[in-house]
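Exercise (ungraded).
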Amino acid sequence: MNVGTWLSRSVLAACMLALAAFSASQADAWVLVVAGSVTVAGFTLSGGPRGLALPPWAVRVAVLGGIAWGALEVFARPGAEDAARTVGIVVTAGICVKAWDRRVPSDWRQVLVLAMVLCASAALHSSDFLVGTLVIAFAAALVPAAMLLQVHAGSEAAADARRAAVPAGRRAPALESPLGAAPARGMRRMAALGALAGIAMSVLAFAVFPRELAGEGGGRGRVSGFRANIDLWSGGRISQSSRVAMTVRLLDPQDRPGELTMPLRMRGAVLDSYDPAEARWSGSGRFSRIRRFRTEPSGGFEPLAQRVRDERSNVWTQEVQMRSLASDRVFSAWMPLAIACDETRIFGLDRRTGELVDIGGGRLGRPGSYRIRMQAFPSAASVQAVLPASGPLPAAGDVGFPVARVREIAARVLAEQGPGNLPSDAEIAEDPSLRRVRARRIAAFFESWLSGGDFRYSTDLSAYRRGEGEDPIVQFLEVRRSGHCELFASAMAALCLASGIEARVVTGFIATEYDGVSDRYVFRESGAHAWVEVRVDEFQWMTFDPSPLAELLAIQQANRTWLDGFRWILDPVEFTWNSRFAGFDARAQAELADRAGEASRAAQAWLSARARDASAHAERFFMQGAVGVAWVASVAGALAAVGGILAVLAARGRRAAAALGAPGAGRAARMALARDAGFYLEALGVLERAGVGKPSWRTPLAHARALGTRSRGASEAFEAIVRRLYAIRYGGVRPTRAERREAHGLVAELRRALADGYTR
Amino acid sequence: MRRRYHVRAPGVLYLLLVLAVGLVAANRPGNLLVWVFAAMLSGVLLSGILSGWPLMKLRVRRRVPSTAVAGEPLVLRYEVSQGSRAWPAFAVSVRELRVAPLGAAPVPAPAFVRHVGPRETVVAESVAWPARRGALRFGTFRAETAFPFGLLGKSVRFDDDASCLVLPRARPLRPGVLRELAGEGRTGTASRPRIGPGSDFLGLREYRPGDSVRSVAWRRSTAGGDLTVIERSVDAPPRVGVVLDLRRATEALRVEGGPARARELEEDAIVLAASLLQAAASEGMETSLAVLGLPGPAAGARAGRRQLERELCALAALDLDAPRDAEIAFADPGARSSVIVVHVDRADLAVGGPTAVHLAAGQLRSMTVDAAEGAR
């Protein structure tokens, strides 16, 4: 077994897996191509005494330069996401540099630590299936690499110590660290055991790690760009992935599939509260008015309100098939009237906003498919029935936006460029229905103003800087004038609110593709989108999308690659990963605990039932009731005790025979030896516990004398014990009870002498 | 045997890294990072289990040679046996914890076993460099491993006392020195009662085919009628008696440089005596050793390797800290022996007889060569 060669290969494999994981987390294959090539070349060419290694000063300069660059980048971009990425880049560079360095055991250790940090950075950035697979593979590859490193480092350290101990001018004899037979097999076995045990322990620790109740948008590690809350400062999570998140089939009221409208928007979360301090949109009072609905595999549609159970006017059916996306959100194109699922699940409906969410109902993971009955243009009665908590239409003065500068911009833009035929306050006071007209016209104006060309759609938000008193919406409207859909939707909602019109941001997905073969809309992860709903009437909200659609479509199209045609192969696996692992949150943890509890209770119940059956059977057999059971239990207990005692005696006899050099003695002889020479076994135990146990290759008398170097009293006591043993074992002496007692007294003396410590 | 766990520096750093990852995992959403933290934590537990498990049935037996030579490598061998039926042990270091007396030899570098399989025994070696002669005692030693990850180490202590007698390092004499010192003892003046190619008459016997014609006793053969052959005896080898004068205590020696220098001179005297004995034994001479002032060997002059070993062991066992007895008489080895008396500081011509040659310890380097110089 050439440890050095194996170690080099193992470490290289681990480094490549770490680089691949980081590359996948950044969705940038060039990281793997460039860094991987440099690393492979470095490991290959720099090994051995004639390897092409960098001089030490160059390595130090490169490492220090990388650290300095990283520090500057972290100061320049202090966000957690950017910092993690910077750390990953610095570590990647470090691995590439170390690959070209001459390696001693400490260098191998550094490379493995760098690879671990790189994997942690990748895991911090993404919980994607590919990243997860690579991280797990890295963990499995790290085990043998670390083991081989220990063997190699120990060997090198021993050789160095040996060389250092040689006096000047002398030569030491050549010594080799020995290997047993089949070391490779032993190493493989230990590595496999270590990897399996490590993964098992890590799964257990993962399951019990404390988690917050996510509740909103899934657990830790959602992989799509969809978010149930919007942080405008953390725009770096805009997904560019063209992986299919879900597919949707629309059935008309006659249950005929077809392409209805393009693009199609699917509503996931409603955000109606803006926190200017954090620049964050969230749902106010989300799920405070929730109603639960239970679906059964064969139960059909569950209506969300009794009054809409028989609604048939303009009712469409939406069939959603989740692909890579595993979310607790239920996406719907229009207002939902009923829901059906092929699994037993519990769904919750927010009766104010109409958001639907999967609560679980005893199942781990997320629903893979569901069906929604929805109404394209719901009547006021339907809306009132399904969303009774939507509340009355607020007065214009009660609606506002907390950022003063946005109010100023809204007023100025409306005054300068707004539609001229807006109903005045006096006209609205006379005819309240004109309020709907006003709201619609203002919203349409803002939509066209934002999408008209003055603002550019872009996913690059690097120019946005968080500062004291700064608001990203104001920066978007006045300074940058470019951003992604969240900024467009936030700006329009803010302008509407500032103009006294109730508006809210809606997040979900937008589909720009239709598969005519399967009659399905294709929603991709890059299709995560945000738009605006404006309240024009008490029970009517209108949808507005201020993002420039043409630019959005162009960006999405540019992200397509030839791999998209093959992604469907991994979709089921990815969904399972996202549903069971990435989406594992506090709710799933609680369900797992409940299931474990149920299984434990079921096992206890089964055991109890079996015990009761056995008891009843015994009672019937003895026909004496409780007394008979007690008698049987006593007899069984006595038999068990006797059996135990016999077993103990037999074991003692065997031990005695082995210790006294008579392994082939008969049962009677063994029992006699155990009785007569038990004091010797006790003395051996005393010596073992004191740390001066008798080696198997040394005779008892020799050991007694060897004890003399540590404790004369112990030596004398043990010698006396040994002489009595010899008399019994070889001299045929049969000690009396008093003599046996005396011999046990010698053991106590031995114990005292050893406890007194070493004396001479 | 006593078992113990050790927390190592890499383990501490690793724990800090685990804590850092755990803090980030607790504050940032990401189930994969949680799993990474869980995996790193399980690595610590696994390290403790896998480092201790193979050592549960590991047994080590030390083999120490009975003698060694000062300044020469002393190879210690450790028989490492893995009693487990299923699990091997990797990266096991065996190190001595204490070598007595202090200063006699530095603690040797640890022996290292890369792998010992289930139910196997391998032998690892370590080298000690005894600096001076005397009894070298080895006590407790320890087998330890930090396998598999180097985070936690486990050790098992074995209590096994062993000793090794370190012989003085004899130096080769310069050419011609022994011939000058041995004098008439060089040629031999006696015979031995053994048949050999000597010149002295030993006895007569019948002729056997193959006997030399020159050994036939013609007169006796003529008288007796049968061929008779003369048997001759072996010439006794030259005999050299070395007397080591240690009657004066170290403090009483007149030496510049204090007690340390005096002790060095005493050791030089011992080395010189050993060098003389070794040179004489290598020439086939009979040797004898007498030590004045300390208990010494009682055997008479003999030739051969065993005699030399006995004499060197006697020199090795000399305890210069023991009280000196100036009254120990010196037994004259006989007229045909050359006597060489080695003194420490000043010669006492009364010792050894009128024909004895007196040497001082300070002449060690002038009369001998260093082994390296001799090799050149």
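Further reading is listed at the end of the chapter. For now, observe: Residues 411 and 435 of chain A are 18 Å apart (CA to CA). Chain A touches chain B through 81 residues (CB under 8 Å).
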